[in-house]
TrEMBL record, chain A:
This is Collectrin-like domain-containing protein. Residues 24-218 form the Collectrin-like domain. One of its GO terms (biological process) is positive regulation of amino acid transport. It is found in: Cell membrane. It is a single-pass type I membrane protein.
TrEMBL record, chain B:
It is a multi-pass membrane protein. PROSITE patterns: NA_NEUROTRAN_SYMP_1, NA_NEUROTRAN_SYMP_2, NA_NEUROTRAN_SYMP_3. It is found in: Membrane. This is Transporter. GO terms for biological process: amino acid transport; sodium ion transmembrane transport. GO terms for cellular component: plasma membrane. The gene is SLC6A18. Keywords: Glycoprotein, Membrane, Metal-binding, Sodium, Symport, Transmembrane, Transmembrane helix, Transport. Na(+) binds at residues 36, 38-39, 43, 267, 299, 416, 420. The chain crosses the membrane at residues 30-48, 60-81, 102-130, 184-205, 217-244, 264-281, 293-314, 404-425, 446-471, 477-500, 521-541, 570-595. Belongs to the sodium:neurotransmitter symporter (SNF) (TC 2.A.22) family. It comes from the Eukaryota. Residues 1-20 are annotated as: Disordered.
Length: 218, 620
């Protein structure tokens, strides 16, 4: 009896292993780049980390397929490599011979991707589910484009500058026209004064008197 | 007494006219304005490209020879003639000989047309400046399509910086015939650029003189900051070595000499009439020889100085691209062969590659690894708008603190362009003022505003979807050949019509020293000859190339490569018109004056009037 049970168990586990293989139509490949992500603080990938992975995947499956109680044993892993990469398949908790199809698994992973990533301190790029494209982060669209704000500020300053310039030139002109008639009178007065004061440059120098003065020193 | 009073009033009027001509507050203002006009965007984005294309350090030789034989003599001549005759470009050539008045008209037209498209570039710079205040910078990431499943294909195939420039800024059409519509965001930026120009230009040199203190000194400050920052970036040394390593073979190529001559000519902003206008506001007793030497040398020094940080940053960008390329290869190998993470590094990549290729060549082949060569990335430089808006913006993304560098860079470009714009517009305003074409009731502020408004309205063509294609046309066909022709006629007029001896006397009177043998030789023979040779070579080269342009067409088979299309017939006609119209004014004005002269001559021959005597014989 015991032999038969043992044989069946081996068969069952062998069967389960056979379903998990590279390029299986029911599972996915996972690649982790721990050293790239964490550098010096990288942890070593060992069985405990693998257990955490299986547990978080079970968590994701539970979240997605409500009601079904996925366990760690439902996540079957194979082909682990030094890269750290491996393949996994998911069996149904109700019937271990049945595999969950790819679409459901993919949807579950997408839904809980963030939680799985943070469990390992990794990102979408460093914890890679091959063939599951990460949802692209949309750029944050601002309600008012920030460039319009900068434009408004700059144009406001420039517009104020233009108005100040124009107003100042108008004020300057007004001051000139007010001061001009006074200035003109002053100019004429001073010019007339200099002429009347007999500046030698304007008139003709009368040589006769000066020559007499020079020679007749008596 | 009445006669005396009349004489006094006449003196009063003359003094008023002499004192009413605006003048510079001090010598520094004048020099800075001339330097600002000469130093423009070309110093930053054309000279480094030429240096790199034509064998690095070796290019400096034809460049400096062109400066000494062509640039400095023409510069000295323009500054001297403007200072002596105290008139703008139209007035100067009119007063030397009425038959050569067309040269001034040509200068004025070219200045106006160039000012129009140059300000569009300033508008683009403003657009990028406004967008540099975001985190992350908008040209870093590709936008996602509506389903959020993938990036927009146009962006994915080219790159995010290309997409931002061609699609989000220009919204460019696939060819020049498709005009598209006026892009409202570009119209806004163009209006703000013109407002900036107006605020500096509003009262002519009074306001320009104050504005240039900021706009001319700031670029040097930014260049120094960039220099310090760029030299600390990884890969900067590669860029600099690549730039300055002389390749003496390129000197055998005549195209290098032609490009050096044209570069120095356009770089000094000769033949625009702006320099004549600026020097006409000087006191007459001013050492224009020293000014010319200062402006010319500072211009060349700025070109060389600017190319250092530019190429350091391009070297950094090439290094980044090279690392990305190599890391991609490493990742492919790591994933395919399931080697431990980070076991393959850049250093031991070659060993690993050889080992894996030996054991499993077919697998390695199937990976389609890229060949990463640093030189290929270094060669990917560009000039003009490509350098500023595509290459440099890509480099800035990878620098820490990108927003600061982007803001500084675009402010620097804006200041460089703005000071050149002042020169362009002054080359339009001064002749109009000297010809007394401004109605006396109109204050100067309104007139300058009208000039800016007219230029803004016409330059709205550049805000269309096909605007970039039109700008290329304007740049190639106005900003080149007409200037060479105008400069040639300028030097011929001064040396042979005005008379080189009279010119020498004038300079001796102004500076106290007669120009030495170097100036004599270059003015009389070398510079006109060089201009003629450059002009002929330029025409020959243009004629050899069929008129084509590179279009950005997302539906092109080989996208993202540019599609090379020929210009349609009507566009070629417009190109011809743009080149011909400024130049045609030279013979037209000469012809008009000759006809007037003939009319007068025929009139006096048929009707000899003994009283119509030019000589005043009133003193009896």
């Amino acid at each position: 009896m015991l032999d038969k049970i043992l044989f069946l168990l081996c068969l069952a586990s062998a069967l389960a292993d056979e379903r998990c293989m590279p390029d299986t139509p029911h599972g996915f490949q996972v690649r982790l780049s721990i050293k790239t992500a964490l550098g010096d603080e990288a942890y070593v990938w060992n069985e405990n980390e693998m257990f955490l992975f299986r547990a978080s995947l079970a968590f994701a499956m539970r979240n997605h397929m409500n009601g079904q109680q996925f366990e760690v044993s439902n996540i079957i892993v194979c082909n682990e490599t030094m890269r750290v990469s491996f393949w996994f398949i998911v069996t149904s908790p109700l019937d271990t011979s049945q595999l969950i199809d790819q679409e459901n698994v993919e949807a579950a992973i997408r839904q809980s991707r963030n939680r799985i990533n943070s469990a390992f301190l990794l990102t979408d790029k460093t914890l890679e589910f091959v063939d599951i494209l990460p949802t692209l982060a949309t750029l944050y669209t601002h309600p008012t484009p920030p460039w319009l704000i900068v434009f408004g500020v700059v144009m406001g300053a420039v517009g104020a500058g233009i108005i100040i310039m124009l107003v100042s030139s108008v004020v300057q002109k007004k001051r000139k026209t007010n001061g001009k008639p006074q200035d003109k009178d002053d100019d004429e007065e001073t010019r007339v004064k200099t002429v009347e004061n007999g500046d030698a440059h304007d008139g003709v120098h009368n040589m006769s008197f000066s020559e007499d003065e020079r020679f007749t020193k008596m | 007494m009445a006669g005396d009073k009349e004489m006094m009033e006449k003196e009063d009027g003359e003094e008023k006219e002499i004192s009413e001509r605006p003048k510079w507050d001090n010598k520094v203002q004048y020099l800075l304005t001339c330097i600002g006009f000469a130093v423009g965007l070309g110093n930053v984005w054309r000279f480094p490209y030429l240096c790199q294309t034509y064998g690095g350090g070796a290019f400096l030789i034809p460049y400096l020879i062109a400066l000494v034989l062509e640039g400095l003599p023409l510069l000295h001549m323009e500054l001297a003639i403007g200072q002596r005759l105290r008139l703008g470009s139209v007035g100067v050539w009119n007063s030397i000989s009425p038959y050569m008045g067309g040269v001034g008209v040509a200068s004025m037209m070219v200045s106006f047309l160039v000012g129009m498209f140059y300000n569009m570039i300033l508008a683009w710079i403003l657009w990028y400046f406004f967008h540099s205040f975001q985190n992350p910078l908008p040209w870093r990431d590709c936008p996602v399509n509506l389903n959020h499943t993938a990036y927009i294909s146009e962006c994915e195939k080219s790159s995010s910086v290309n997409y931002f420039w061609y699609r989000e800024t220009l919204n460019i059409t696939p060819n020049i015939q498709t005009s598209g519509s006026l892009e409202w965001w570009l119209v806004l930026c163009l209006a703000s650029a013109w407002c900036f120009v107006y605020i500096g230009f509003v009262r002519g040199i009074e306001t320009i003189g104050k504005a240039i203190y900021a706009t001319v000194t700031f670029p040097y400050l930014v260049l120094t900051i960039f220099l310090i920052r760029a030299l600390t970036l990884p890969g900067a040394a590669d860029g600099l070595v690549y730039l300055f390593t002389p390749n003496w073979d390129t000197l055998k190529n005549p195209e290098v000499w032609l490009d050096a001559a044209t570069q120095i000519f356009f770089s000094l902003s000769l033949a625009f009439g702006g320099l004549i206008a600026f020097s006409s506001y000087n006191a007459q007793k001013n050492n224009c020889e020293r000014d010319a030497l200062i402006v010319g040398c500072v211009n060349s020094f700025t070109s060389i100085y600017a190319s250092i940080p530019i190429f350091a940053i391009l070297g950094f960008k090439a290094n980044e691209n090279y690392n990305t390329c190599q890391n991609w290869n490493i990742l492919q190998l790591t994933n395919a062969f399931n080697i431990g993470d980070e076991n393959i590094t850049v250093e031991n990549y070659q060993d690993w590659f050889n080992q894996l290729n030996a054991t499993d060549p077919s697998e390695v082949e199937s990976l389609d690894l890229k060949t990463c060569d640093l030189h290929t990335f270094l060669e990917q430089s560009a000039s003009g708008t490509g350098l500023a808006f595509i290459v440099f913006t890509e480099a800035v993304i990878n620098m820490p603190g990108s927003q600061v560098w982007a803001v500084l860079f675009f402010i620097m470009l804006f200041c460089l362009g703005l000071s050149s714009m002042f020169g362009n517009l002054q080359g339009v305003l001064t002749p109009l003022m000297d010809l007394h074409l401004i109605p006396t009731w109109m204050p100067k502020e309104i007139f300058t505003g009208l000039i800016c408004l007219a230029a803004f309205t016409i330059s709205l063509i550049f805000t269309l979807g096909s605007g970039n294609y039109w700008l290329e046309i304007f740049n190639n066909y106005i900003g080149s050949m007409p200037l060479l022709i105008v400069a040639f006629f300028e030097i011929i007029t001064v040396v042979y019509i005005y008379g080189i001896n009279r010119f020498n006397d004038d300079i001796e009177w102004m500076t106290g020293r007669r120009p030495n043998i170097y100036w004599q030789a270059t003015w009389r023979f070398i510079s006109p000859l060089m201009l003629l040779v450059v002009f002929v070579a330029y025409v020959v080269m243009q004629a050899e190339k069929s008129p084509t342009y590179s279009a950005w067409n997302p539906d092109y088979v080989y996208f993202p490569l540019a599609e090379v299309l020929p210009y349609p017939g009507w566009v070629v006609a417009i190109c011809g018109l743009l080149s011909a119209i400024p130049v045609i004014s030279i013979p037209l004005v000469a012809l008009y004056r000759f006809i007037c002269f003939l009319k007068n001559y025929i009139k006096t021959r048929h009707n000899p009037n003994p009283y119509a005597n030019d000589v005043s014989s009133g003193d009896l």
